[in-house]
Write a structure and sequence with these properties.
InterPro entries: HDACs, His_deacetylse_dom, His_deacetylse_dom_sf, Ureohydrolase_dom_sf. Residues 37-319 form the Histone deacetylase domain. It is built from ten helices and twelve strands. It has helices at 40-51, 68-71, 77-88, 104-123, 154-166, 182-188, 234-253, 279-296, 314-326, 345-358; strands at 5-7, 19-24, 28-34, 59-61, 93-95, 98-99, 129-132, 171-175, 194-201, 224-229, 257-262, 301-305. It is globular, with a radius of gyration of 19 Å.
């Protein structure tokens, strides 16, 4: 069993996104409970890792908050000021579908700091691989706007930190969250020093981004890779996408550090997706990116928590990620039974369309 770093701070639970309230008939309201992105997400994941015995085998690290200098590597001063002012005023809405409370800007800095701490672990010769259980998530935050539960873009801050502080020249980001990582794409769209690969549900959220034709511009052309998959793809379909596209492109790029935006919301029970991925599918994805990192970048791998909103299944899906990362299988029997879905004609056509676009930049696919 491999030893890995575990990054967490107890204050992540203080980020309060409030409750979902529907307006019915113009003036009637219906309270349906906590927002999808709530503190129970990290509580349940941590408890699963503790009770499975895996957390005891990790080396735990406590992060510090990101400074303005850290945030300014990818965000504008205007955005930082807006986040501070929104929190100071006690407003709930930080941006489109991005909610919080008076301490949320501080906790978002702590989340970004957790991503940076994970990079420090990966660049250290002792551990080299880390999982950061952080919130709020980050991949929807653009340089100048919070959105989709995200205030600051954790993975983008981590990538730029690795380039600037450790002097790296090539960093790769793989985003397997069910939603397109539009903020990460926005930040690195003109940058060849960061390869961004987003594997997401087609035409979902945000609805107007994540198309295969969005390949980057200028020096970044070819280094932005979108792989939109049809609804109901399942484990076999994700494996096919990784084998045909993700892994070959990473091999060709030869990153010096590999970052994963690990949203476990493609899981089979998530209320915000329809992709039917199980614990075994997440274990596979984590396993193959770990093996690839060990081959091409001295094992330097960082996995950052993004989405995942099924409180019963999110801990199980994330357990699969950690099993793949640690090269083990926990003594836990998944009580949920989900039929395996085969690779469909629709998926094959989606991958073929991607290859047609990307092969002009990556001649090994």
């Amino acid at each position: 069993m491999k030893s890995i770093g575990f990054v967490f701070h107890e204050d992540y639970v203080k980020h309060d996104t409030g409750e979902q309230v529907y307006v019915v008939g113009g003036n009637e309201t219906l309270n349906v409970g906590l927002e999808f992105e709530n503190h129970f997400r990290v509580r349940y994941i941590k408890e699963m890792l503790e009770k499975s015995g895996l957390l005891a085998k990790m080396k735990t690290f406590v992060p510090e908050p990101a400074t303005d200098r850290d945030l300014l590597r990818v965000h504008t001063q205007r955005h930082i000021d807006n986040m501070k002012e929104t929190a100071r005023k006690g407003l709930r809405v930080f941006g489109p579908e991005a909610y919080g409370c008076p301490v949320s800007e501080e906790i978002a800095r702590l989340s970004a700091g957790g991503a940076m701490k994970a990079v420090d672990i990966a660049m250290d010769n002792e551990v080299k691989q880390a999982y950061a259980l952080i919130r709020p998530p980050g991949h929807h935050a653009t340089s100048d706007q919070a959105m989709g539960f995200c205030l600051y873009n954790n993975v983008a801050i981590a990538a730029r930190y690795a380039l600037d502080v450790y002097g790296l020249e090539r960093v790769a980001i793989v985003d397997w969250d069910v939603h397109h990582g539009n903020g990460t794409q926005d930040i690195f769209y003109h940058d060849k020093n960061v390869l961004f690969i987003s594997v997401h549900e087609d035409s979902y959220f945000p609805a107007n981004t994540g198309k295969i034709e969005e390949v980057g511009e200028g020096e970044g052309e070819g280094y932005n890779v979108n792989i939109p998959l049809p609804s109901g793809t399942g484990n076999a379909g994700y494996q096919y996408a990784f084998e045909q596209l993700v892994l070959p492109i990473l091999e060709k790029y030869e990153p010096q550090l590999l970052l994963i935006s690990a949203g476990q919301d493609p899981n089979c029970m998530d209320p915000l997706s329809r992709m039917v991925v199980t614990r075994e599918g997440f274990r596979y994805m984590a396993k193959v990116v770990r093996e690839l990192a060990e081959r091409i970048c001295d094992g330097r791998l960082v996995i950052l928590q993004e989405g995942g909103y099924s409180l019963p299944y999110l801990p199980i899906a994330t357990l699969g990620v950690i099993e793949g990362l640690m090269d083990c299988e926990a003594d836990f029997r998944d009580p949920h039974s989900v039929p395996e879905r085969p690779v469909t004609q629709e998926l094959w056509e989606a991958i073929f369309a991607c290859k047609k676009i990307f092969s002009q930049y990556w001649n090994n696919i």
